[in-house]
Design a protein that fits this description.
By secondary structure, the protein is of the alpha+beta class. The protein has helices spanning about 50-60, 65-80, 85-100, 100-120, and strands spanning about 1-5, 15-20, 125-130, 135-145. The protein has a two-stranded antiparallel sheet with strand order 1-2.
Amino acid sequence: MKRRGVTTSLETASIFLFCLFPSREVTKISVKHKCSSTGRIKNSMTSQGWVAQRTVPLIQSDPTIGCKELLENLQDTYGTTTDYHTVWKGKDIAQKEIYGSMRQSFQYLFNFEAEVEKRSPGNIVEVDMKMVHGCWLWHWLMRHRSNLPQL
């Protein structure tokens, strides 16, 4: 049997659902509970930031290291079980911390071009950009004037 109650207070107009149950017996589980809820885990769960902090030295020593190797290294070193996606995002964060974002790298390319032309007047730096499938692709080429064909 269910009954509804409505508060008459102007501050809170909420509906309470009152349930009337027949008498029930409360039992205690005698066996140790082994459910893996976050409250029962002895170590904290790994996050993308945690992975990024631990993988910066590994990426600096080997920039071509893959996520699978990082995952195995973290499991061996720290004894954690981490999802592949968490390691992938953590590696991405660590690479941005080491190398900067793509936007910064793109700006550094033009800064590099200006510095080379300023400090080495005999060199020519060309930056070529193309739009392919909605993405900008770029490459650069540096030549010394003495290597250029004479016209």
